[in-house]
Amino acid sequence: MRQKIEKTSRNPAVSVIIPVFNASSFIRESIESVLGQTFRDLEVIVVDDGSTDNTPDEIRSFGSSVRYLRTKNGGPAHARNLGIAAAQGRLIAFQDADDRWLPKKLERQLEYLEKHPEDAVVFSDIATFDEHGLLARSAKEVYGTIPSGDLFGELLMKRFIAMSSVIVRADCLEEVGGFDAVLKGCEDYNLFLRLAGRFKFGLVDEVLVHKRIHPGNFSNNLQQMLEDEITNIRKISALFADRKIPEERLIAEMRLRFGRYHFANGDHSAARRCLLQAARRVSLSRRDWLVLLFLMFPRRVRETLLAARRSRKKLGKPTSIVLGSLS
Q: Which of 94, 159, 179, 241 has the fewest CB atoms in 10 Å of its CB?
């Protein structure tokens, strides 16, 4: 049985790590949501990953309430690892520089860990919000029931855990080795999978985190994101070889997902390439086949079809099967 979470005179119960890069517009709200927790036995470590805006000034304005570390730009995994190395708590919580916690986040999750010493990780539901402050659907509303317990298989198939909702026991984190700094786009899920390969995950089934959605937190390099996801699954497959992970099928499903992303972003060449590669390994939906058919047309034909679709949609007229699939 793991140690109980109790206050000591020397070390805090929880170390909260916030990596940040050029987030001067958001970092204050993020830190304030951590300092405003009802659970008070914590330290806040902000790792500045080489910001070139006013982020350092925003962080320093909190004075001794925050431990400020600065490093050359190396990505979020590198920054989080520096924070972990400096942490003194027996529990490690992660917060993103543009997200905000609800006041009872730590309190509710620590209550859970006290009651479930067998779990190494606890996470919660989240809700997203935009620049206008409008909340969107929670993860539970998107995925239905959110699983917990042995999550290795579930995490191979889909992403439903937000980094800002996670608390992990420091000894378990040390056992798996922290974040893989080679990965730039899916270092969080690489860590979750390595943890899930050895430990159980607990869930506090309520929204405790508001995750900000804004243009700056989406990668503008989908190809790099796909390559990182493929690298990740190959690393996990090698690490857990005894589990016989269906590596090539999972990679094909990634290509299918990124093909949809590319198409939505208007990159028809990349979308066609991903969908063709995916079709060799997995079954495509009817809509995916129609999109792929559309992508095989010459560019001028595609532009004519898209113009026709926009015109008919503006007039409120029905579109053909092919045109209707292009939404």
A: 241
Across the strands, what pairs with 81? none
Q: In angstroms, rounded to a whole number, what is the distance separating the alpha carbons of residues 166 and 245?
A: 25
Domain ranges of the chain: 14-213, 222-324
CA distance 27 to 59: 8
Give the whole-angstrom CA distance, residue 321 versus residue 289: 11
CA distance to 93, 156, 231, 237, 323, per residue, from 234 (Å): 27, 12, 5, 5, 37
Please give the model's pTM, rounded to 2 decimal places: 0.88
**At which residue do the structure tokens 């992508």 appear?**
295
CATH topology for 14-213 is Spore Coat Polysaccharide Biosynthesis Protein SpsA; Chain A (3.90.550)
Residue 307: other Cβ atoms inside 10 A: 10
pLDDT of the chain along its 327 residues, tens only? 454 544 444 899 999 999 999 999 999 999 999 999 999 999 999 999 999 999 999 999 999 999 999 999 999 999 999 999 999 999 999 999 999 999 999 999 999 999 999 999 999 999 998 877 677 778 888 888 899 999 999 999 988 999 999 999 999 999 999 999 998 879 999 999 999 999 999 999 999 999 988 766 555 588 888 999 999 999 999 999 999 999 999 999 999 999 999 999 899 999 999 999 999 999 999 999 999 999 999 999 999 988 887 777 666 655 554 445 555
